[in-house]
Amino acid sequence: MQIIEDSLDQLLKQVAIRTNAVANREEVEKSVRDIIANVVKDGDKAVKMYEKKFDNVDLNNLKVTEKEIDDAYAATDDKVINALKLAKENITSFHKMEVEDSFIDAKKKGVIRGEKIAPLAAVGLYVPGGTAAYPSSILMNVIPAKIAGVGRIVMCTPPQKDGLNQAVLAAAKIAGVDEIYMVGGAQAIASLAYGTETIPRVDKITGPGNVFVATAKKQVFGQVDIDMIAGPSEIGVIAGSQAVPSQVAADLLSQAEHDKLARPILVTDDRKLADAVSAEMDRQVALLPRKEIAQAAMDNEGFIAVVDDIDDAFRLMNAVAPEHLEVQLPDAIEYLNQIKNAGSVFLGFSASEPLGDYLAGPNHILPTGGTARFFSPLGVQDFVKRTQFVSYTREALKKEKDAITTLARVEGLEAHARAIESRFDA
Length: 426
Hints:
Catalyzes the sequential NAD-dependent oxidations of L-histidinol to L-histidinaldehyde and then to L-histidine. By secondary structure, the chain is α/β, with parallel strands linked by helices. It has three domains: 3-19 and 232-353, Nitrogenase molybdenum iron protein domain (Rossmann fold), CATH 3.40.50.1980; 43-226, Nitrogenase molybdenum iron protein domain (Rossmann fold), CATH 3.40.50.1980; 393-424, no CATH class. Helix content is 44%, strand content 16%. The chain is built from 16 helices and 14 strands. The termini are far apart.
Protein backbone atom coordinates (compact mmCIF):
# COMPACT_ATOMS: atom_id res chain seq x y z
CA MET A 1 0.00 0.00 0.00
CA GLN A 2 1.29 3.47 -0.83
CA ILE A 3 3.27 5.18 1.93
CA ILE A 4 3.08 8.98 2.04
CA GLU A 5 5.50 10.98 4.19
CA ASP A 6 4.94 14.73 4.06
CA SER A 7 4.02 17.76 6.15
CA LEU A 8 0.59 17.80 7.76
CA ASP A 9 -0.53 20.65 5.49
CA GLN A 10 0.39 18.68 2.39
CA LEU A 11 -1.22 15.51 3.71
CA LEU A 12 -4.45 17.38 4.46
CA LYS A 13 -4.50 18.63 0.88
CA GLN A 14 -4.08 15.08 -0.43
CA VAL A 15 -6.91 13.70 1.69
CA ALA A 16 -9.99 14.23 -0.45
CA ILE A 17 -13.26 13.81 1.44
CA ARG A 18 -14.86 11.23 -0.80
CA THR A 19 -18.49 11.80 -1.73
CA ASN A 20 -20.83 8.84 -1.69
CA ALA A 21 -20.89 6.45 -4.60
CA VAL A 22 -24.24 7.50 -6.06
CA ALA A 23 -23.29 11.07 -6.94
CA ASN A 24 -23.36 12.26 -10.56
CA ARG A 25 -24.53 9.04 -12.17
CA GLU A 26 -27.14 10.28 -14.59
CA GLU A 27 -27.84 6.91 -16.24
CA VAL A 28 -28.41 5.24 -12.90
CA GLU A 29 -30.60 8.12 -11.74
CA LYS A 30 -32.80 7.83 -14.84
CA SER A 31 -33.03 4.05 -14.69
CA VAL A 32 -34.04 4.13 -11.04
CA ARG A 33 -36.57 6.88 -11.66
CA ASP A 34 -38.22 4.71 -14.33
CA ILE A 35 -38.28 1.66 -12.03
CA ILE A 36 -39.93 3.63 -9.23
CA ALA A 37 -42.54 5.07 -11.61
CA ASN A 38 -43.42 1.61 -12.95
CA VAL A 39 -43.73 0.10 -9.47
CA VAL A 40 -45.99 2.96 -8.42
CA LYS A 41 -48.10 2.41 -11.56
CA ASP A 42 -48.23 -1.40 -11.81
CA GLY A 43 -47.39 -2.64 -8.29
CA ASP A 44 -46.69 -6.38 -7.98
CA LYS A 45 -46.75 -6.86 -11.75
CA ALA A 46 -43.85 -4.45 -12.19
CA VAL A 47 -41.95 -5.94 -9.24
CA LYS A 48 -42.18 -9.47 -10.69
CA MET A 49 -41.17 -8.22 -14.12
CA TYR A 50 -38.04 -6.58 -12.71
CA GLU A 51 -37.16 -9.68 -10.68
CA LYS A 52 -37.32 -11.72 -13.90
CA LYS A 53 -35.21 -9.11 -15.70
CA PHE A 54 -32.55 -8.46 -13.07
CA ASP A 55 -32.43 -11.62 -10.94
CA ASN A 56 -33.65 -14.09 -13.59
CA VAL A 57 -36.22 -15.52 -11.17
CA ASP A 58 -39.92 -16.15 -11.89
CA LEU A 59 -41.95 -15.41 -8.79
CA ASN A 60 -45.52 -16.46 -8.15
CA ASN A 61 -45.49 -15.20 -4.57
CA LEU A 62 -43.34 -12.39 -3.24
CA LYS A 63 -43.81 -13.16 0.44
CA VAL A 64 -41.62 -15.66 2.29
CA THR A 65 -43.82 -18.03 4.27
CA GLU A 66 -43.51 -18.72 8.00
CA LYS A 67 -42.69 -22.35 7.17
CA GLU A 68 -39.81 -21.30 4.93
CA ILE A 69 -38.43 -19.12 7.72
CA ASP A 70 -38.83 -21.85 10.34
CA ASP A 71 -37.23 -24.44 8.06
CA ALA A 72 -34.25 -22.17 7.42
CA TYR A 73 -33.85 -21.57 11.16
CA ALA A 74 -33.94 -25.30 11.87
CA ALA A 75 -31.37 -25.98 9.14
CA THR A 76 -28.92 -23.33 10.34
CA ASP A 77 -25.89 -24.59 12.25
CA ASP A 78 -26.26 -24.31 16.04
CA LYS A 79 -22.98 -22.40 16.28
CA VAL A 80 -24.41 -19.74 13.96
CA ILE A 81 -27.68 -19.58 15.90
CA ASN A 82 -25.83 -19.23 19.21
CA ALA A 83 -23.55 -16.53 17.81
CA LEU A 84 -26.54 -14.59 16.47
CA LYS A 85 -28.29 -14.88 19.84
CA LEU A 86 -25.20 -13.61 21.69
CA ALA A 87 -24.91 -10.73 19.24
CA LYS A 88 -28.60 -9.93 19.79
CA GLU A 89 -28.05 -9.86 23.56
CA ASN A 90 -25.13 -7.43 23.28
CA ILE A 91 -26.77 -5.21 20.66
CA THR A 92 -29.94 -5.05 22.76
CA SER A 93 -28.15 -4.15 25.99
CA PHE A 94 -26.23 -1.37 24.22
CA HIS A 95 -29.16 0.19 22.38
CA LYS A 96 -31.48 0.10 25.38
CA MET A 97 -29.27 2.81 26.85
CA GLU A 98 -30.22 5.10 23.93
CA VAL A 99 -33.92 5.21 24.80
CA GLU A 100 -35.18 8.76 25.34
CA ASP A 101 -38.15 9.74 27.47
CA SER A 102 -40.91 12.19 26.69
CA PHE A 103 -40.84 15.28 28.90
CA ILE A 104 -43.26 17.81 30.30
CA ASP A 105 -42.51 21.23 31.77
CA ALA A 106 -45.02 23.10 33.95
CA LYS A 107 -42.71 25.39 35.88
CA LYS A 108 -44.32 28.62 34.65
CA LYS A 109 -47.80 29.32 35.99
CA GLY A 110 -50.50 28.62 33.40
CA VAL A 111 -48.06 27.15 30.86
CA ILE A 112 -47.53 23.49 29.98
CA ARG A 113 -44.88 22.56 27.42
CA GLY A 114 -43.47 19.23 26.41
CA GLU A 115 -42.37 16.71 23.86
CA LYS A 116 -43.90 13.31 23.21
CA ILE A 117 -41.65 10.61 21.77
CA ALA A 118 -43.42 7.88 19.81
CA PRO A 119 -42.19 5.02 17.59
CA LEU A 120 -42.63 4.93 13.84
CA ALA A 121 -45.51 2.71 12.77
CA ALA A 122 -43.66 0.72 10.10
CA VAL A 123 -40.05 0.36 8.96
CA GLY A 124 -38.62 -1.38 5.90
CA LEU A 125 -35.25 -3.13 5.91
CA TYR A 126 -33.30 -3.85 2.74
CA VAL A 127 -30.91 -6.83 2.89
CA PRO A 128 -28.57 -7.29 -0.10
CA GLY A 129 -28.24 -10.66 -1.85
CA GLY A 130 -25.62 -11.63 -4.39
CA THR A 131 -22.07 -12.65 -3.47
CA ALA A 132 -22.26 -11.88 0.26
CA ALA A 133 -24.94 -12.32 2.92
CA TYR A 134 -25.00 -10.17 6.04
CA PRO A 135 -27.18 -11.65 8.80
CA SER A 136 -25.39 -9.37 11.27
CA SER A 137 -26.80 -6.31 9.50
CA ILE A 138 -30.32 -7.61 10.07
CA LEU A 139 -29.71 -7.57 13.82
CA MET A 140 -28.17 -4.10 13.64
CA ASN A 141 -31.17 -2.65 11.81
CA VAL A 142 -34.01 -4.49 13.49
CA ILE A 143 -33.05 -4.50 17.17
CA PRO A 144 -32.93 -0.69 17.64
CA ALA A 145 -36.28 -0.46 15.83
CA LYS A 146 -37.76 -3.09 18.14
CA ILE A 147 -36.45 -1.28 21.21
CA ALA A 148 -37.97 1.95 19.91
CA GLY A 149 -41.34 0.18 19.67
CA VAL A 150 -41.82 0.11 15.91
CA GLY A 151 -45.03 -1.78 15.23
CA ARG A 152 -44.20 -3.46 11.93
CA ILE A 153 -40.82 -4.37 10.44
CA VAL A 154 -40.79 -5.45 6.80
CA MET A 155 -37.72 -6.96 5.15
CA CYS A 156 -36.93 -7.14 1.44
CA THR A 157 -34.10 -9.23 -0.01
CA PRO A 158 -33.44 -10.37 -3.60
CA PRO A 159 -34.65 -13.85 -4.59
CA GLN A 160 -31.95 -16.46 -5.23
CA LYS A 161 -32.16 -19.36 -7.69
CA ASP A 162 -31.04 -21.81 -5.03
CA GLY A 163 -33.16 -20.30 -2.25
CA LEU A 164 -32.65 -17.50 0.25
CA ASN A 165 -29.63 -17.68 2.54
CA GLN A 166 -30.54 -19.74 5.62
CA ALA A 167 -28.56 -17.59 8.05
CA VAL A 168 -30.29 -14.46 6.74
CA LEU A 169 -33.73 -15.97 7.39
CA ALA A 170 -32.59 -17.27 10.79
CA ALA A 171 -31.29 -13.83 11.74
CA ALA A 172 -34.60 -12.27 10.68
CA LYS A 173 -36.46 -14.69 12.93
CA ILE A 174 -34.15 -14.05 15.87
CA ALA A 175 -34.30 -10.28 15.43
CA GLY A 176 -38.11 -10.25 15.15
CA VAL A 177 -38.81 -9.27 11.54
CA ASP A 178 -42.57 -9.37 10.93
CA GLU A 179 -42.68 -9.94 7.14
CA ILE A 180 -40.11 -10.91 4.49
CA TYR A 181 -40.48 -10.36 0.74
CA MET A 182 -38.32 -11.66 -2.10
CA VAL A 183 -37.61 -8.49 -3.99
CA GLY A 184 -34.35 -6.65 -4.55
CA GLY A 185 -32.86 -3.55 -6.10
CA ALA A 186 -34.60 -0.26 -6.75
CA GLN A 187 -37.92 -2.10 -7.12
CA ALA A 188 -37.71 -3.17 -3.47
CA ILE A 189 -37.14 0.40 -2.32
CA ALA A 190 -40.03 1.64 -4.48
CA SER A 191 -42.30 -1.08 -3.09
CA LEU A 192 -41.49 -0.16 0.50
CA ALA A 193 -41.89 3.55 -0.14
CA TYR A 194 -45.19 3.44 -2.06
CA GLY A 195 -46.61 0.00 -1.35
CA THR A 196 -47.96 -2.61 -3.78
CA GLU A 197 -50.86 -5.06 -3.62
CA THR A 198 -48.64 -7.39 -1.55
CA ILE A 199 -45.91 -5.27 0.03
CA PRO A 200 -47.03 -2.69 2.60
CA ARG A 201 -45.70 0.85 2.49
CA VAL A 202 -43.52 1.91 5.40
CA ASP A 203 -42.45 5.15 7.05
CA LYS A 204 -38.69 4.65 6.90
CA ILE A 205 -36.25 2.47 4.94
CA THR A 206 -32.90 1.33 6.32
CA GLY A 207 -30.16 -1.02 5.19
CA PRO A 208 -27.28 -1.04 2.70
CA GLY A 209 -27.31 -1.88 -1.00
CA ASN A 210 -25.66 -1.34 -4.35
CA VAL A 211 -25.66 1.90 -6.33
CA PHE A 212 -29.24 1.27 -7.60
CA VAL A 213 -30.53 0.71 -4.08
CA ALA A 214 -28.70 3.78 -2.76
CA THR A 215 -30.01 5.91 -5.63
CA ALA A 216 -33.56 4.67 -5.07
CA LYS A 217 -33.33 5.53 -1.38
CA LYS A 218 -32.21 9.01 -2.31
CA GLN A 219 -35.09 9.43 -4.77
CA VAL A 220 -37.84 8.24 -2.40
CA PHE A 221 -36.57 10.37 0.50
CA GLY A 222 -39.40 12.71 1.39
CA GLN A 223 -42.02 10.10 0.58
CA VAL A 224 -40.37 8.13 3.39
CA ASP A 225 -37.42 8.72 5.67
CA ILE A 226 -34.15 6.82 5.12
CA ASP A 227 -31.19 6.03 7.34
CA MET A 228 -28.39 7.34 5.11
CA ILE A 229 -26.85 7.03 1.64
CA ALA A 230 -24.15 4.48 2.39
CA GLY A 231 -20.95 4.27 0.37
CA PRO A 232 -18.03 1.81 0.39
CA SER A 233 -16.61 0.75 3.75
CA GLU A 234 -13.71 2.60 5.39
CA ILE A 235 -11.27 1.93 8.20
CA GLY A 236 -8.74 4.33 9.68
CA VAL A 237 -6.06 3.17 12.09
CA ILE A 238 -3.94 5.49 14.24
CA ALA A 239 -0.97 3.54 15.56
CA GLY A 240 2.42 4.11 17.12
CA SER A 241 5.58 2.09 17.58
CA GLN A 242 4.01 -0.31 20.07
CA ALA A 243 1.40 -1.58 17.61
CA VAL A 244 1.84 -5.07 16.15
CA PRO A 245 2.26 -4.80 12.34
CA SER A 246 0.52 -8.10 11.56
CA GLN A 247 -2.52 -7.06 13.62
CA VAL A 248 -2.73 -3.59 12.04
CA ALA A 249 -2.51 -5.14 8.58
CA ALA A 250 -5.18 -7.71 9.40
CA ASP A 251 -7.54 -4.99 10.64
CA LEU A 252 -7.02 -2.87 7.52
CA LEU A 253 -7.71 -5.90 5.32
CA SER A 254 -10.89 -6.69 7.27
CA GLN A 255 -12.52 -3.73 5.55
CA ALA A 256 -10.56 -3.84 2.28
CA GLU A 257 -12.14 -7.21 1.49
CA HIS A 258 -15.63 -5.67 1.45
CA ASP A 259 -15.38 -3.74 -1.80
CA LYS A 260 -12.87 -2.65 -4.44
CA LEU A 261 -13.77 0.92 -3.43
CA ALA A 262 -13.25 0.29 0.30
CA ARG A 263 -10.75 2.62 1.92
CA PRO A 264 -8.09 1.30 4.36
CA ILE A 265 -5.92 4.03 5.93
CA LEU A 266 -3.10 3.90 8.46
CA VAL A 267 -1.69 7.06 10.03
CA THR A 268 1.41 6.67 12.18
CA ASP A 269 4.36 8.63 13.52
CA ASP A 270 6.66 5.61 13.08
CA ARG A 271 8.17 4.95 9.65
CA LYS A 272 9.32 1.45 10.69
CA LEU A 273 5.73 0.53 11.54
CA ALA A 274 4.54 1.92 8.20
CA ASP A 275 7.03 -0.24 6.28
CA ALA A 276 6.24 -3.33 8.35
CA VAL A 277 2.46 -2.93 7.95
CA SER A 278 2.81 -2.43 4.20
CA ALA A 279 4.85 -5.65 3.93
CA GLU A 280 2.36 -7.53 6.11
CA MET A 281 -0.57 -6.40 3.96
CA ASP A 282 1.18 -7.68 0.85
CA ARG A 283 1.76 -11.01 2.57
CA GLN A 284 -1.70 -11.39 4.08
CA VAL A 285 -3.76 -10.24 1.11
CA ALA A 286 -2.40 -13.09 -1.00
CA LEU A 287 -3.94 -15.56 1.46
CA LEU A 288 -7.48 -14.13 1.37
CA PRO A 289 -10.38 -15.73 -0.56
CA ARG A 290 -11.41 -12.20 -1.63
CA LYS A 291 -7.84 -11.16 -2.43
CA GLU A 292 -8.66 -9.48 -5.74
CA ILE A 293 -11.20 -7.20 -4.07
CA ALA A 294 -8.89 -6.40 -1.14
CA GLN A 295 -5.90 -5.80 -3.42
CA ALA A 296 -7.87 -3.33 -5.54
CA ALA A 297 -8.93 -1.43 -2.43
CA MET A 298 -5.32 -1.32 -1.20
CA ASP A 299 -3.95 -0.16 -4.54
CA ASN A 300 -6.59 2.39 -5.50
CA GLU A 301 -8.15 3.70 -2.28
CA GLY A 302 -5.80 2.94 0.62
CA PHE A 303 -2.67 4.66 1.88
CA ILE A 304 -0.31 4.84 4.83
CA ALA A 305 0.55 8.34 6.05
CA VAL A 306 3.61 9.04 8.18
CA VAL A 307 3.26 12.19 10.30
CA ASP A 308 5.49 14.01 12.76
CA ASP A 309 3.58 13.09 15.91
CA ILE A 310 0.38 11.50 17.19
CA ASP A 311 -1.41 14.85 17.52
CA ASP A 312 -0.96 15.31 13.76
CA ALA A 313 -2.31 11.79 13.25
CA PHE A 314 -5.57 12.77 14.91
CA ARG A 315 -5.77 16.03 12.93
CA LEU A 316 -5.37 14.12 9.68
CA MET A 317 -7.84 11.39 10.62
CA ASN A 318 -10.44 13.97 11.68
CA ALA A 319 -10.21 15.35 8.14
CA VAL A 320 -10.77 11.85 6.72
CA ALA A 321 -13.76 11.29 9.09
CA PRO A 322 -13.63 7.49 8.66
CA GLU A 323 -16.52 5.09 9.11
CA HIS A 324 -14.42 3.01 11.54
CA LEU A 325 -11.46 4.32 13.52
CA GLU A 326 -9.04 2.20 15.53
CA VAL A 327 -6.69 3.82 18.04
CA GLN A 328 -3.86 1.35 18.57
CA LEU A 329 -1.97 3.28 21.26
CA PRO A 330 -1.27 2.64 24.95
CA ASP A 331 -4.06 4.05 27.17
CA ALA A 332 -6.10 4.63 24.01
CA ILE A 333 -9.21 5.84 25.86
CA GLU A 334 -7.28 8.96 26.90
CA TYR A 335 -7.33 10.08 23.26
CA LEU A 336 -11.12 9.93 22.92
CA ASN A 337 -11.59 13.70 23.13
CA GLN A 338 -9.14 14.21 20.26
CA ILE A 339 -11.49 12.33 17.95
CA LYS A 340 -13.90 14.76 16.32
CA ASN A 341 -15.11 12.85 13.25
CA ALA A 342 -15.60 9.09 13.12
CA GLY A 343 -18.54 6.73 12.85
CA SER A 344 -17.44 4.16 15.44
CA VAL A 345 -14.23 4.14 17.47
CA PHE A 346 -12.21 1.11 18.63
CA LEU A 347 -9.86 1.86 21.51
CA GLY A 348 -6.78 -0.21 22.32
CA PHE A 349 -4.77 -3.04 20.83
CA SER A 350 -7.46 -5.69 21.39
CA ALA A 351 -10.40 -3.71 19.99
CA SER A 352 -10.23 -5.03 16.44
CA GLU A 353 -12.86 -3.56 14.10
CA PRO A 354 -14.76 -6.85 13.46
CA LEU A 355 -15.65 -6.76 17.17
CA GLY A 356 -18.00 -3.91 16.27
CA ASP A 357 -19.20 -5.56 13.08
CA TYR A 358 -20.60 -8.53 14.93
CA LEU A 359 -20.76 -8.69 18.68
CA ALA A 360 -19.79 -5.75 20.90
CA GLY A 361 -23.19 -4.06 20.74
CA PRO A 362 -22.66 -0.62 19.12
CA ASN A 363 -24.24 -0.43 15.69
CA HIS A 364 -22.31 -1.17 12.51
CA ILE A 365 -24.61 0.89 10.28
CA LEU A 366 -22.32 3.91 10.10
CA PRO A 367 -21.72 7.09 8.08
CA THR A 368 -19.24 6.77 5.21
CA GLY A 369 -17.54 9.01 2.66
CA GLY A 370 -16.59 11.69 5.17
CA THR A 371 -20.20 12.11 6.35
CA ALA A 372 -19.18 11.24 9.93
CA ARG A 373 -18.58 14.99 10.11
CA PHE A 374 -22.36 15.40 10.45
CA PHE A 375 -24.07 11.97 10.49
CA SER A 376 -24.28 9.48 13.37
CA PRO A 377 -24.51 5.68 13.66
CA LEU A 378 -27.93 4.05 13.40
CA GLY A 379 -29.69 3.86 16.75
CA VAL A 380 -32.98 3.83 18.62
CA GLN A 381 -33.41 7.55 18.00
CA ASP A 382 -33.67 6.85 14.26
CA PHE A 383 -36.91 4.93 14.76
CA VAL A 384 -38.90 7.45 16.77
CA LYS A 385 -40.52 10.78 16.03
CA ARG A 386 -40.96 13.74 18.33
CA THR A 387 -44.18 15.69 18.73
CA GLN A 388 -44.06 18.94 20.68
CA PHE A 389 -47.03 20.27 22.58
CA VAL A 390 -48.01 23.43 24.46
CA SER A 391 -50.95 24.62 26.57
CA TYR A 392 -51.52 28.19 27.87
CA THR A 393 -54.22 29.52 30.14
CA ARG A 394 -55.81 32.83 29.14
CA GLU A 395 -53.92 34.58 31.93
CA ALA A 396 -50.57 33.17 30.81
CA LEU A 397 -51.23 34.15 27.20
CA LYS A 398 -52.13 37.69 28.26
CA LYS A 399 -48.69 38.17 29.79
CA GLU A 400 -46.96 37.33 26.50
CA LYS A 401 -49.56 38.69 24.07
CA ASP A 402 -47.75 41.90 23.21
CA ALA A 403 -44.43 40.16 22.48
CA ILE A 404 -46.17 37.68 20.16
CA THR A 405 -48.07 40.33 18.20
CA THR A 406 -44.97 42.51 17.95
CA LEU A 407 -42.97 39.70 16.35
CA ALA A 408 -45.85 38.75 14.06
CA ARG A 409 -46.14 42.31 12.71
CA VAL A 410 -42.36 42.61 12.28
CA GLU A 411 -42.67 39.61 9.96
CA GLY A 412 -45.66 41.18 8.14
CA LEU A 413 -48.06 38.46 9.28
CA GLU A 414 -51.07 40.45 10.50
CA ALA A 415 -53.39 37.44 10.75
CA HIS A 416 -50.97 35.86 13.22
CA ALA A 417 -51.22 38.92 15.45
CA ARG A 418 -55.00 39.11 15.18
CA ALA A 419 -55.35 35.41 16.07
CA ILE A 420 -53.74 36.19 19.43
CA GLU A 421 -55.69 39.43 19.95
CA SER A 422 -59.00 37.69 19.23
CA ARG A 423 -58.69 35.97 22.60
CA PHE A 424 -58.98 39.37 24.27
CA ASP A 425 -61.66 41.08 22.19
CA ALA A 426 -64.39 42.64 24.33
